[in-house]
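Researcher: We're teaching a course module on how sequence relates to structure. For the next exercise, students receive a sequence and then see the predicted structure as tokens, so they can try to spot secondary structure elements on their own. Here is the exercise chain.
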Amino acid sequence: MAVGQRARMMEETRAKLIRAARQAFAEKGYAAASMDDLTAAAGLTRGALYHNFGDKKGLLRAVIDQLDAEMVAKARAARDQAETPWLGFLAEGVAYIELALEPEIQRIMLLDGPAVLGDPSQWPGQNACLRTTTETVQALIDAGTVRPLDAEAAARLINGAALNAALWIAASDNPRAVLARAVEAFRHLATGLLEAKG
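Model: And here is the predicted structure for the students to work with:
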């Protein structure tokens, strides 16, 4: 078998397992999704799951990585539609918080993910997001939009606020009502970074 064909088959196997796991985790939750059911849904064996992901937890990480990439793309799309870099910064944070209303994201990313994988602020995707937010804050400082301060500290606090708002929404009995409260508070917190115009 040619190396390229083998790599393509391995990637197809991974994609099938991720797709089946994503559906099972969203519908049943991580704990109730059996490895036998999701490998059968993918038309594969447990061996394929172990070979590609190590275990069920490794498969959850892969699903979360996929969801995280989709969330980043949606938040950046909101940013890119804004009229100014500052409004884009706000729109990106609000879009991230609003994604907590999506049932799949609620269940997998915000409820099961932290329960199984630990503190989301330590996940690799969050670290990449922190770097991007730090660069954005620094650019806003350099432009005179945001007051001079430590860009990384501001980025950590903004990202933490957005993540905790999303976790709060996901765990709430009334996510839509919590969303409105969280977004309003997030906007006020972020606005505190603005350079005072005098």
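Model: If you want an answer key for the exercise: The chain is about 75% helix and 0% strand. Residues 33 and 49 are 14 Å apart (CA to CA).
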